């Protein structure tokens, strides 16, 4: 994996793969902007969906001279054939043509292969060739420091400081989806521009809350044995017409994450390793690790059993959905 930054001169072939959608989009746009001015993109940029169009069309296009600029950009989206995916598609690819192109790419073209999947199949000859000949970016994990830097840079564009305390609070309030967080910081920056820093208080006042973050906060109150705080959040969610069965599923998910984090910590895994294994943002693991200090292993096991029993009771009509969730929270707080 190379450094997460595009430099010039541009390489003839790039491979961007991973599950971090924001980074995929950001690096993709960086490459395009380096290669072509905005008014040139309509003439000298083509995008091919590999789920629907054969790769040989893209290769033929890549071998065509630019029309209005010095470079041509050919983008191959959804390159599933770089992974171990064996699902049948309606389109057939002649991958030997792509392999030949990668071995001898056009100097006038920048080809970008996008694979929004967790990993490539490194046993494949084409993947080995790309790793040797192309610039490959793995975009699966975004550390908290990287995320803080992205959001801080966004605020800086408006000459506004983005504090670390605000960052931690924003993750708790709005979740860890990078695109959502960038939009939240844009909004906060416009409000704070020329007047103040983005601090914890401003985030609390203006940041949009997600259902997941509200449930996360409720579970945190449960684990701190704060029944009043947990029921206050639950009441707000009921007023917002949130489905009790969905809330129960999210509560169970959070207890499961905390339980798994506890087990991995006891095996000596570090926060980053646990985040990678559970496919979660490191911040979520950090908070789960702190929650394990409030709720021990045995309490977490009992909590998961209680959640499962409540789920069965609700779905089989043994108890009203809202009453069942309220009784569950009372039991969890008492563990």
Automatic annotation (TrEMBL):
<dbReference type="GO" id="GO:0003887">
    <property type="term" value="F:DNA-directed DNA polymerase activity"/>
</dbReference>
<keyword id="KW-0235">DNA replication</keyword>
<dbReference type="GO" id="GO:0003677">
    <property type="term" value="F:DNA binding"/>
</dbReference>
<protein>
    <recommendedName>
        <fullName>DNA polymerase III subunit delta</fullName>
        <ecNumber>2.7.7.7</ecNumber>
    </recommendedName>
</protein>
<keyword id="KW-0239">DNA-directed DNA polymerase</keyword>
<feature type="domain" description="DNA polymerase III delta N-terminal">
    <location>
        <begin position="14"/>
        <end position="139"/>
    </location>
</feature>
<keyword id="KW-0808">Transferase</keyword>
<dbReference type="Pfam" id="PF21694">
    <property type="entry name" value="DNA_pol3_delta_C"/>
</dbReference>
<comment type="similarity">
    <text>Belongs to the DNA polymerase HolA subunit family.</text>
</comment>
<dbReference type="GO" id="GO:0006261">
    <property type="term" value="P:DNA-templated DNA replication"/>
</dbReference>
<dbReference type="InterPro" id="IPR005790">
    <property type="entry name" value="DNA_polIII_delta"/>
</dbReference>
<dbReference type="GO" id="GO:0009360">
    <property type="term" value="C:DNA polymerase III complex"/>
</dbReference>
<dbReference type="InterPro" id="IPR008921">
    <property type="entry name" value="DNA_pol3_clamp-load_cplx_C"/>
</dbReference>
<dbReference type="InterPro" id="IPR048466">
    <property type="entry name" value="DNA_pol3_delta-like_C"/>
</dbReference>
<dbReference type="Pfam" id="PF06144">
    <property type="entry name" value="DNA_pol3_delta"/>
</dbReference>
<keyword id="KW-0548">Nucleotidyltransferase</keyword>
<dbReference type="InterPro" id="IPR010372">
    <property type="entry name" value="DNA_pol3_delta_N"/>
</dbReference>
<dbReference type="InterPro" id="IPR027417">
    <property type="entry name" value="P-loop_NTPase"/>
</dbReference>
<feature type="domain" description="DNA polymerase III delta subunit-like C-terminal">
    <location>
        <begin position="212"/>
        <end position="331"/>
    </location>
</feature>
């Amino acid at each position: 994996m190379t450094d997460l930054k595009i430099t010039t001169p541009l390489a003839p072939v790039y491979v961007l793969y991973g599950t971090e959608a924001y980074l995929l989009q950001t690096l993709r746009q960086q490459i395009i902007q380096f290669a072509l001015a905005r008014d040139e993109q309509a003439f000298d940029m083509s995008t091919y969906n590999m789920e629907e169009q054969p790769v040989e069309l893209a290769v033929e296009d890549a071998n065509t001279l630019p029309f209005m600029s010095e470079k041509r950009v050919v983008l191959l989206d959804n390159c599933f054939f770089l992974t171990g995916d064996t699902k049948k598609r309606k389109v057939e690819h002649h991958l030997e043509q792509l392999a030949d192109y990668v071995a001898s790419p056009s100097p006038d073209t920048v080809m970008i292969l996008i694979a929004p999947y967790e990993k490539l199949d490194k046993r494949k000859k084409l993947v080995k060739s790309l790793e040797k000949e192309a610039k490959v970016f793995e975009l699966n994990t975004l550390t908290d420091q990287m995320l803080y830097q992205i959001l801080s840079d966004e605020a800086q564009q408006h000459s506004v400081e983005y504090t670390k305390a605000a960052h931690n609070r924003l993750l708790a309030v709005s979740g860890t989806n990078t695109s959502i967080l960038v939009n939240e910081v844009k909004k906060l920056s416009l409000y704070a521009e020329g007047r103040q820093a983005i601090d914890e208080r401003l985030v609390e006042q203006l940041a949009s809350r997600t259902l997941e973050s509200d449930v996360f906060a409720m579970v945190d109150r449960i684990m701190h044995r704060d029944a009043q705080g947990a029921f206050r959040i639950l009441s707000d969610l009921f007023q917002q017409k949130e489905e009790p069965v969905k809330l129960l599923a999210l509560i169970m998910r959070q207890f499961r994450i905390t339980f798994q984090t506890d087990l991995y910590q006891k095996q000596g895994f570090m926060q980053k390793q646990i985040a990678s294994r559970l496919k979660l943002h490191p911040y979520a693991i950090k908070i789960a690790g702190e929650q394990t200090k409030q709720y021990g292993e045995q309490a977490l096991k009992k909590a998961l059993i209680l959640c499962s029993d409540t789920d069965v009771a609700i779905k089989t009509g043994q108890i009203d959905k809202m009453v069942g969730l309220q009784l569950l929270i009372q039991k969890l707080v008492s563990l």
